[in-house]
């Protein structure tokens, strides 16, 4: 099977994009194609596969598949790339439009260069989900409706302070004094599959620089360490507000391995994410 593709990245978080307006992959074949195409040795190499599709409830729809073939609920960097892809391919004409993801519909706004290509994208990610049972995160004690803020969390006999946030997909945030010493390799793969998270979880480590600036690293469920995670950056800013490190309503610069995002948790409860998306290559993949 010959599959036309576009490779794009948001701050190094790279996916293979398939134009579902023009090309169809059978439903039962998508997970295997995602694994094949993501393989750095025998495929193209990526963090996963994203299908750009028509939508019945929005202007465009995206489906995200991790490199292990599992389907994800949401992807902030993917949303920005889909916005760029949809606008530059003429599937939307307005600079403001809606994108449907598995987690729901979000609003996108593209900022253009002089040649009408997309320079940066702002996504209204909507309000964060903070109730334990909706993240979802199990509890043996306490109220399932409570928020998980600076809660004791044991991993391999070590105690950590954890805050949990969902941005349509679940995240757990740990704070460290030095991001270079964050135990991402040691506890990332353990926590992402921890039984306390029935749907798995993305694991973030955050170093707070000041009230407008944080450093962020991530272990993503289904993909492992990635250069960036847009929903994770949003969750990290929400968590930092809840823990009193940054102020609600202010734009916070999040330094990720792949570059910077600008995140605001607005007073109206919505989270805005602003950042770039880049087209890397186009071609045909033989599956």
From TrEMBL:
It is an enzyme of class 5 (isomerase). Transmembrane segments: none annotated. Signal peptide: none annotated. It is found in: Cytoplasm. Its main location: cytoplasm. The record marks 171, 220 as: Could be important to modulate the pK values of the two catalytic cysteine residues. Keywords: Amino-acid biosynthesis, Cytoplasm, Isomerase, Lysine biosynthesis. Its EC number is 5.1.1.7. Pathway: Amino-acid biosynthesis; L-lysine biosynthesis via DAP pathway; DL-2,6-diaminopimelate from LL-2,6-diaminopimelate: step 1/1. Pfam families: DAP_epimerase (PF01678). Belongs to the diaminopimelate epimerase family. Homodimer. This is Diaminopimelate epimerase. It comes from Alkalibacillus silvisoli.
